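C-alpha cells please, single chain.
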Amino acid sequence: MGFCVLDLDRIVANATEKRGYFAEKSKIKVNKGIEFIETMPCVELWFLLHFLDRYSAKAYVNYDQISKPLKQHITRYEKTSAFFKSNPIYELLITKGNLKQADEFARKLAIEKDDSDNPYFNFTDINKLIKRLKNR
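Here you go.
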C-alpha cells in the first residue's frame, strides 16, 4: 500500500480537475493500490493546527488564506523546497507546536466535515497518515 498526499484547494476549484481526480481516486481505491491522504485546503492546515490556542472550524479556501495565520507561528514559512531543506518542519512542529492538540483538532474537523455539505469544509488526514506510519 502506498500513500498519495494531496492538497485539495486547487483540485476542487477547477471542475475538470475535480472530476478527473475523483474518477481516478475511485479506480485506484478499487484496486487497493493507494491510500489518499487529503487536506482541504492544503497541508499548511495541519501545520497550523499545532499552534491554535483553541479549536476552530474557520474556513480557509486556499494556501494564500492559511499562510497568513501560519506565518504568525512560523515567521519565515514558505511553501518551497528551499524552506523545507533548511527547516526540519517535523522538529519545528514537535518542539514549538502541540502534536496531540493538532491530532485532536484534526479529528474534530473530520467529524464536522462528515456532517457538512460544504465541499470546501477544512479537514486534514495527515494525522491518520502519521498514525499509520507509526504502526508499521
